[in-house]
Amino acid sequence: MPRLADSHVHLDDERFDSDREAVLQRARNADVALQVIPGTDAASWPRIHALCTPGSGLFPAYGMHPMFMHSHRADDLSTLSHWLDTKRPVAVGEIGLDFYQEGHDAQGQREYFGQQLQLAREFDLPVILHARAALDEVTTTLRRTGGLRGVVHSFSGSVEQAEQLWKIGFHLGIGGPVTYERAQRLRRIVASMPIEYLLLESDAPDQPSATHRGQRNEPSYLPDVLHCIAQLRNEDPEHIAAATTANVRRLFRI
Question: Structure pTM?
Answer without folding.
Answer: 0.97
